[in-house]
């Protein structure tokens, strides 16, 4: 997918660095984003989600789609773009719990957690503790379903790993965490937010505005014309056109009041359970930040 976003510069330190995650769930935000068409000095830096979270926190990447939990851990450093996220109100189809035995029994045993997602891992811990009053043994493992199931009664996978496992799975019950959250709370769940370091807003306010507008335009065009994403997903990842049409149509990319309220509840529970050590308050980017 990276070829859709223009050439990534390796020649000089760019004024603004943007982290790029090549997971299908963020494709609509990047697909029609063309750095060369923006009047700003931009460098696109490929990263895995966990790597982007660290790079943003340390300041080597200025903005990008970081995990919601990573934002919560360092929220004082960032502002969020109000119209960009990866959210769902119900099934998300790529945050999946695979079960050897019924959920209530598995929650009394061992659950293998993927090492690739802090947001989803902590979402599962919240669901287990708050809604089922359960405290299973957790083991962190690389995202390999067969090996995870050798060690545990259930396994949590996210992203493309979860999608592939759901296609090949024939023996395990599968529960969608987005759906489980919605059933218990009635709220949206936001898995990734679009964050920018506050110091970068202060240094490059006009450039940030242009970049935000370009990402929002990419989002709108992707939603209006999803077929290019569908075709690329079939070619790059596999599966059927119908699967990907359904997948993209059930993800949402706004971050308005309903998504903010759902994420605020997530952070409240995380704080109550000691998964995060402070109460999280959102700081939203707006035009009045532009000097």
Q: What is the residue-mean pLDDT, rounded to a whole number?
A: 91
Strands ordered across the widest β-sheet: 7-6-8-5-9
Helix and strand succession?
A: EHEHEHEEHEHEHEHEHEHHHHH
Outline the low-pLDDT stretches: 2-12
How far the N terminus sits from the C terminus, by CA atoms, comes to: 34 Å
Give a short overview.
It contains 13 helices and ten strands. It is α/β, with parallel strands linked by helices and 291 residues long.
Keywords:
291 residues, 10 strands, 13 helices, 5-stranded mixed sheet, alpha/beta, disordered N terminus, 3-stranded antiparallel sheet, 20% strand
Model description:
This protein is of the alpha/beta class and 291 residues long. 43% of the residues lie in helices and 20% in strands. It has 13 helices and ten strands. The strands form three sheets. A five-stranded mixed beta sheet has the order 7-6-8-5-9, sandwiched between helices. A three-stranded antiparallel beta sheet has the order 3-10-4. Strand 1 (16-20), helix 1 (27-30) and strand 2 form a beta-alpha-beta unit. The longest helix is centred in the C-terminal third of the chain and has 20 residues, at 205-224. The two termini are 34 Å apart. Mean pLDDT is 91; it is low at 2-12.
